[in-house]
Write a structure and sequence with these properties.
Elements lengths: L21 H10 L4 H7 L4 H10 L1 H26 L6 H11 L1 H4 L25 H15 L3
Helix pairs in contact: 1-4, 3-4, 4-5
Length: about 150
């Protein structure tokens, strides 16, 4: 007599700790200015787990997105309040928002070439140079890039 084998596949790995009710908590933490690291800490998971949950659960992805918006709003309100407060460390605030919200707060410098066009790039083939010529080139480049 042969035994009947269960041919259904069983999931591999640990079951997810994700719960749909986490969405509201994530939004609430965002409203308090919490970063993704603080949100992950709240759930006692790492940030990669938050990303996995967002990849697997569209509602959690949406909650994280909304939380990021709320986080930025919290920091912007703190900055506005600081402008009229007796004591405000504007440098710390500026560094914080620049690190947290790079897209909106990082200073960008755009380089352009002549007449606003692209920057011209010239390449030089060094393969034909002798050892002495390469040594001279290396010394010149070293001198040109020396900050002293």
């Amino acid at each position: 007599m042969t035994k009947n084998k269960d041919l259904t596949k069983r999931p591999v790995g640990r079951p997810s700790l994700y719960k749909p009710e986490y969405c509201e908590k994530v939004i609430e933490l965002g409203r308090k200015g919490c970063s993704p690291a603080e949100i992950a800490s709240h759930f006692d998971v790492d940030r990669a787990t938050l990303k996995n949950w967002a990849d697997e659960n569209p509602e959690f992805f949406a909650a994280l997105t909304r939380a990021k918006n709320h986080e930025q709003a919290w920091w912007e309100k703190a900055g506005k309040a600081g402008m009229i407060a007796d004591k405000f460390n504007a440098q710390v605030w500026t560094k914080s928002v620049a690190a947290r919200f790079r897209e909106d707060y990082t200073e960008r410098k755009e380089l352009t070439g002549a007449d606003g066009g692209p920057v011209a790039v010239t390449s030089v083939d060094l393969r034909g140079l002798s050892d002495a010529e390469l040594a001279t080139m290396k010394a010149l480049l070293s001198k040109a890039t020396d900050p002293a």
